[in-house]
Amino acid sequence: MSAPLSPGATIGIIGGGQLGRMLAMAAARLGYRTLVLEPQQDAPASQVTNGQIVAAYDDPAALAELAERSDVVTYEFENVPVEAATRLADQIRVSPPPRALEVSQDRLTEKTFLNDIAAQTARFEAVSSEKELAAALKAFGGQGVLKTRRLGYDGKGQHVFRKDRPADVSAVYASMGKVPLILESLVSFDREISIIAARGLDGTLAAFEPAENVHRGGILHSSTLPAMVAEETAKAARQIAFSILKALDYVGVIGVEFFVLPDRSILVNEIAPRVHNSGHWTEAACLVSQFEQHIRAIAGLPLGSTERHFDCIMENLIGDDVERANALSMEPNLMLHLYGKAEARPGRKMGHFTRVFRSQEQVDENDPEA
Ligand code: AMP
Q1: pTM metric for this prediction
Q2: Which CATH number fits domain 10-94: 3.30.70.100, 3.40.50.300, 3.40.50.20, 3.40.50.1970?
Q3: Distance CA 234, CA 144 (A)
Q4: Most buried residue among 13, 90, 111, 166 by CB atoms closer than 10 A?
Q5: Quick one: which H or E segment has residue 363?
Q6: Mean pLDDT of successive 10-residue segments in the chain (370 residues)?
Q7: Which residue, among 273, 305, 311, 310, has the nearest Cα to 289 in the 3D structure?
Q8: In CATH, which superfamily holds the domain spanning 123-184?
Q9: Looking at ligand 1, which atom is closest to the CA of residue 107?
Q10: Cβ < 6 Å from ligand 1: which residues?
């Protein structure tokens, strides 16, 4: 077990988006320096890091330089080329481990891994031809969600088949670009929740409470705390997140998304080997945010408290929503976070905000009349 990184040490971050930006800000507060590998100049993270290597994520010379100038390397998105991360891990500690990338980059590998560790998922079938699609659809009763196995996010590269809306299977197959696909059974869930959990360098485990998430058009719209789920459901979700962390010998923060079924059982939808949009509320409602938790884990510091001090709702500002920023900034009990992106394109995450509320329990505690 290595000693924690000393203040002044450098954390290398692959990827310069908003997650990298928020990781860098958390690292700075703990006295660390950050160096980002990102091809785009003036990206959200590059605006707040100590340095940037401007190159592709798999550029061998850039990766060698990143290893040379960092004390540990992490990443902010799951599509970092596995080969590049594995090569890098020969030179320097890479946390989370490249195996976590391998598992989460391919929905088929991911679901197989989950089922192997007894975490249930929707039923699934690999699809690599129109004929296989027709057969899988038939097996799932004429409905299902067709997804690309790789490079899908925020609902991109997906098609929903419903029994009551017959579709042209051949046209849908062609529209997916003839890449490897997976058909999942269409889950009729009551709600969606996610767990943000962490594993420290010494194997310690910690999890924030589950957030209840609402998606619009496949993109996260809001996360609400507390989630309206039974304690046994929250406990089951936490246990699954911990099993995943242990099975991957993981170090850092992970996001695990679940469907909650009417009988209160849960299915894992997907895992993200990084800090996660549905954990942004932690920066406003907890003393230690998911970003600080990740930095603590990879730096070998003790994990921080996951206690939640407020009820809250986090909402994303997507595209033109960012025009609400001025009005939102006038609200008390609201934390606004903008990502420094110049252009508000449709579907682009520009920022988020978290409204906090005192929970009824806290109101009762402070009111002797209650
Ligand atoms: P994903 O990109 O896989 O996280 O999917 C985005 C959103 O689509 C999820 O958060 C769900 O709201 C919905 N979704 C994905 N897969 C399924 C499924 N198998 N059954 C029902 N809804 C799904």
Answers
A1: 0.95
A2: 3.40.50.20
A3: 27
A4: 13
A5: helix 360-366
A6: 89 98 98 98 97 96 97 96 95 97 97 98 96 95 95 74 90 91 96 98 98 94 98 98 98 98 97 98 98 98 98 98 97 97 95 90 65
A7: 305
A8: ATP-grasp fold, A domain (3.30.1490.20)
A9: 3
A10: 122, 145, 152, 155, 184, 186-187, 192, 215, 218, 269-270
